[in-house]
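At this stage, I put together one protein's amino acid sequence and its backbone structure tokens, which the following lines show:
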Amino acid sequence: MTRPGSAHVSGCTCGTCSSSGVIQIVVPGTGGVQGLQGVQGRTGVQGARGLQGTTGAQGVQGVQGRQGTTGTGTQGATGTQGATGTGAQGTTGTQGVQGIEGGGVSLQDVEDAIAGAALSTTDDLTEGTTNKYYKVDRVSYLHTQGAASNSWVITHNLGFHPNVTVVDSAGTIYEGEIAYTNTNSLTVSFSASFSGKAYLS
């Protein structure tokens, strides 16, 4: 409502202003003041919410498939063991021929021979004969080889080439190769080194 020349001010509570709701005051020579905005009407009451529909029935569960059966194939038969080799065992070699026992005589043999031929006295000797009676150290000699060796050098001083019998420390007779150096010494050679004794006669 426009009232030209009105002296009413904003917020006037006169009967005219309060009934119209908006008063626009126009001042001559200027633009009129915009009236107050009307009061907004009340919001209408919200309608009632509709009822929720019923829940549909659950579908039927599908049937579970059956588990497959376990295989029942039979196990293969065990293979037979291979035959054992049948090669014949080699024959045992023949035993070596035992060496021939040496032909020498023992010291006891020499002593027995001397005792049997020895003179009881020198009365039976021809006058002027000297040093002709038997003595053990004139016809035999015992050599002791303390250090093991395969070559025994023996000086016997018998004045002839004697027979030689060699035994080791256990009493076993051994044969060796005899080399007479002269009538008073000789060398006996063996295939292996050992110690023992040599009987010369």
Remarks:
- The beta strands are 2-4, 24-26, 141-155, 164-168, 173-174, 177-182, 185-200.
